[in-house]
Structures are given as C-alpha cells and as structure tokens.
Design a protein that fits this description.
Blueprint lengths: L35 E6 L1 H4 L5 E7 L8 E2 L5 E7 L2 E5 L5 E5 L4 E4 L5 E5 L6 E7 L7 E2 L9 E2 L10
Parallel strand pairs: 6-11
Antiparallel strand pairs: 1-2, 2-9, 3-10, 4-7, 4-9, 5-6, 5-8
Amino acid sequence: MSDVPARPADGWKHSGVKVIPGDQLDDNTAQTPGMHRATAIDRARAGAQKLWAGTVHIHANAKTGAHHHGPLESVIYVVSGRARMRWGDQLEFTAEAGPGDFIYVPPFVPHQEINASSDEPLSCVLVRSDSDAVVVNLDIEPVEKPEGVAWIDPIHKS
C-alpha cells in the first residue's frame, strides 16, 4: 500500500500546481489593527490542507496590535523594509529583521510587528502551519523598554 494518492482524472492539469497572481490576493482574511494581510494560498483558494500563505504590509513608522495565532506556527519572510518584532506576555522582548531574513513565531506567542522605518513600508510574506486564518487580537499593556534578544541556536551560539 502506497501513501501516494491516485493520479486524478485530469492528470494533475487543474488539481496540480496553482499560480496565484500577486494582484489577485484575497483581503477577506482575519486582520490585526496596524497591518494589512492578504491571502494567497488557503483551503478555499488553492485547496491547501496544511498551510496558509499570504502577504502583510505595514505603513512606515506604524505598528500592529498585539496578537497570536493560536496553535499555528508562523514564518515571516521580510521582502523589504525593516521589521522590529516584540513578543512575550508584556511584549518585553525585541529583535529586528531586514530584507531576506526569516522570522519564526511559535504557537500562542503574543507578538507585535513594528515597521522600524520612518519612511519605508514594511512588506513581508507569511506562511502558517494550517489553512485556517487564526488571529487572536490581545489587549496587552507593553513594557516601556523591551529587552533585545540576539539570535542564538545550537549552531549560532553568540
């Protein structure tokens, strides 16, 4: 018995690869104040069963409200601009990312995206681990001065 599904009757023509033009993203998705999300890939648009993908744009010198994405993992890829992330129960931690950087947000982590530039929009690509667009907006009183956190993992120790 194989885990490979049977070849569809259309020979993958319409049930295989899908291209979603960048100017045809769907704005009808869960939003957080301060940002604009648009869906490219989800169950309804592309038949995705295990992921959601789209874009987010944050105006210059703007920030989002605090939120989390429930049990979903999120990956943010910075296309242009400078992202400042804050996270924690009181948004007490911070780190920055620029073009070409990836940001990983684990499930249930309260976070906030900030455009660190005063004159350039922040544009990112988002991918989440389920096709549902889970967004839980939070009412958090952030600490005044968050602690900067350096990227440290088993390979990059300092």
